[in-house]
């Protein structure tokens, strides 16, 4: 009886066990698909995947304490499957001493900020579309997120020292304001002149009256923290009251008596009524009705 060749044996075996082989291949395909899908989900969506790297333990802890803890690492630290597998194989083969490029860790996250922060997000963060300050810096000035939000790992509070990198001429000085941070006064979520909400100053300067002749003006119309904080009489005349010296008895008092505006007018109230006049006028002459002063 002639010997069967190996190829003939294989052909006969396949023919006799065709159904079993098909089922086995189908089982292997399904199993491989499930394993592959689970690995894909693990690599793409599970933060535990990141902890397999020896460098990630501290970063993982800070992520768990951050406001971004509801989002998996891969949401911001995006990598292709090819890049992930290269890094995994490199780590397995070369061990903990392997050095890999940290593009996914230190560069790509900043490029993905806008994916979330262009619209309202569940955590209530200030969004680019609803924040005048962000719109002005990101869209108008093309400033990257990392230039201002340069905190420690997973701490994205703005670095208030970063402002001075661009605004070199905006130095705060005088009257106890030198130690204040930029964001103490300026609000990114406010579309107002100089990004200062109306009433922000009064949160500190609580003794300033909110009603009066000049209450419609903003504090920084007269006070300039980055320049001259306390205005003088010449500033009043130059900026607003240029013709005031020609009204009533102002010229007499300013030129002859050499009085300044603030010698008579009290800051933030300004109006001089009969009660105030009794104290002021009698310092120099007999009391006269304040109503006759401007005639």
TrEMBL record:
SUPFAM superfamilies: Multiheme cytochromes. Keywords: Electron transport, Heme, Iron, Membrane, Metal-binding, Signal, Transmembrane, Transmembrane helix, Transport. It comes from Candidatus Sulfobium mesophilum. This is Uncharacterized protein. One of its GO terms (molecular function) is metal ion binding. It comes from the Bacteria. The chain crosses the membrane at residues 21-40.
